[in-house]
Amino acid sequence: MADHTHHGSHAREKSGEAYWKANLRIIFVSLIIWALCSFGFGILLRPMLSGIRVGGTDLGFWFAQQGSILVFLVLIFFYAFRMNKLDKEYGVDEE
Amino acid sequence: MDQFTINLLFVGASFALYIGIAIWARAGSTSEFYAAGRGVHPVTNGMATAADWMSAASFLSMAGLIAFTGYDNSAYLMGWTGGYVLLALLLAPYLRKFGKFTVSEFIGDRFYSPTARLVAVICLIICSVTYVIGQMTGVGVAFGRFLEVDSTTGLLIGAVIVFAYAVFGGMKGVTYTQVAQYVVLILAYTIPAIFISLQLTGNPIPALGLFGSTADGTPLLETLDQIVTELGFNEYTAHNGDTLNMVLFTLSLMIGTAGLPHVIMRFFTVPKVSDARWSAGWALVFIALLYLTAPAVGAMARLNITQQFWPNGTEGAAVSLEQIENDDAYDWMATWQQTGMLGWEDKNGDGLIQYYNENSPAMQERAAAEGWTGNELTNFNNDILVLANPEIANLPAWVIGLIAAGGLAAALSTAAGLLLAISSAVSHDLMKGQLTPNISEKSELMAARVSMAVAIAVATWLGLNPPGFAAQTVALAFGLAASSIFPVLMMGIFSKVNKQGAVAGMLAGLIITLVYIFLHKGWLFIPDTNSFTDADPLFMGIKSTSFGAVGAIINFAVAFTVSKMTKPIPQEISELVESVRIPRGAGAATDH
């Protein structure tokens, strides 16, 4: 019996570790997109995008004033959706 | 009905609503007072977070900041929304799992150190108090303009209202009033913007109208770029400032947002970890409704104002003094002149008011040729733009009444959230956490209410006697939140940094950022005590307003280095970190 609980907690620990690694991967990818659409397209890469015209100005201006905000929204909802699924996959969701 | 009566009706009705909600949602326990009993639906919490977060700065100042600078001030738009991504991914779910009442409580427990908790409380109180001064001043200004009382009386009325619902309702009362305040403020912000967007571009959605075309088929932004450059101003859509500061300023606002205690606190009110994730998304939905409209409000107001001053085109004659006096379209100028936030002067005595950039060489040439002796729009305070906007666009009287109620809703909702953060820091972290740990729940609740009443009194006093640095202190609040609170929370969840590392990191980030700001803005913001200016900053050209991000990097670096050199964290703290990372068991995490 003692052995069994020990085994159970060991397995849980392992699944906890794998869950955390998967979470970190999702966070990492999300933050790359976060930075790319704000600091990237909105500021640093704006000169490269200046050829793409949007409503009297260029794509970089649109990203800086609106596009980045829309991307942020999509990112947060994507993360919430993805993580709730991950919680269930690894059996760490709230009962 | 005259304008004053309409304003009074709108403001009075909105206040009656807030008080009604406060009576309905009284807090009976510490859990209700600090975390609304953890029973708030994620969408409701998102809406309350949006009202909590969007202050007088978002509602009154931001569109004006964008209107008169253009693209470079997009930093505000990206910075004040991008922080929610960091909150949702890096902080909110884990802090909800931890399941306590305050930010400093997490820091104290995770770093098993009352010192860490105390340093966090100090950061929190400085951030929140500086922030609340701005809100109280905003309440005074809005009252002064719309209800024709002097700003002192306005401020006192505002303080009584906040007292009534924040002290009795606690987090529960504040949450539900903030929902009502959100509805008032978003209607007030978007309705005039829809009218103006329809007038200028024919598109009822301002965010789309911004990239639409004016009546003659030219894109709005192209028309704006042309008209402002013809008057010698910087091109609206161009990048005129320096890139390094724009990047660092945006980053500072983002991590500052994620580190502001009154925002983080809101995520303690939802029932589950998964709700905390959804809730951050909903908060950003409600914030985005205003933030996607703001750049349209800014650009359209800039175009309207510039065209009003040059009714015959930039090459023709400027607006005449006679027209300003007699034409109804210019009534707003007289109204705002009385507040001292708008001023003009016919310097060359030609009966016309020439508005142009007197520092541009091309305009100096034209001025010499036409006999102008300088820009004659001598004073235009950015903060009046949103409030004056409906008058500038000649909108109906009820829209102006709505704007008055909206501005007050924005300032009051943020003030209440900040006061709640301050009172919980005092009653829960200082009293229960450090001074009188055996205090009963009933006495703690009383202490929370008393400390909130004291905080309101202090904030009102500071609002009445502003130290004259309301604008600078906002930079301080964000700089401190970015350099002290955000990094330590993140390391608490994502790393095994120990207590020595956390305390050293927080102090290094806090002190270096504080000193850098004081070196540029004056010690304790006393004028003429600064050694540097933001025009010629001390370190690598980084302005003091952009320094929060650097402070955060210093915090991380110091914490990791010190942590490596000292004893690793004990086993039970390691287990605490593991448990915070996993959602299961959040329901079981008790209030104590």
Automatic annotation (TrEMBL), chain A:
Domain of life, source organism: Bacteria
Keyword Transcription included in the entry's annotation: no
TM helices/strands, residue ranges: 26-49, 61-81
Pfam families, alphabetized: DUF4212
UniProt keyword annotations, A-Z: Membrane, Transmembrane, Transmembrane helix
Keyword Transmembrane attributed: yes
Domain Sodium symporter small subunit: 17-93
Name this polypeptide is given: Membrane protein
From TrEMBL, chain B:
Transmembrane segments: 6-25, 74-95, 116-133, 153-170, 182-200, 246-268, 280-301, 397-426, 446-464, 470-494, 501-519, 539-562
Subcellular location, record wording: Membrane
InterPro entries, sorted: Na/Glc_symporter_sf (IPR038377), Na/solute_symporter (IPR001734), Na/solute_symporter_VC_2705 (IPR019899), Sodium:Solute_Symporter (IPR050277)
Keyword terms, alphabetized: Membrane, Transmembrane, Transmembrane helix, Transport
Domain of life: Bacteria
Pfam families the record matches: SSF
GO cellular component: plasma membrane
Predominant place of localization: membrane
Membrane topology recorded in Swiss-Prot or TrEMBL: Multi-pass membrane protein
Family, as annotated: Belongs to the sodium:solute symporter (SSF) (TC 2.A.21) family.
Keyword Nuclease: no
Zinc among keywords: no
GO MF terms, alphabetically ordered: transmembrane transporter activity
PROSITE patterns reported in the protein's UniProt record: NA_SOLUT_SYMP_3 (PS50283)
Protein name per the record: Cation acetate symporter
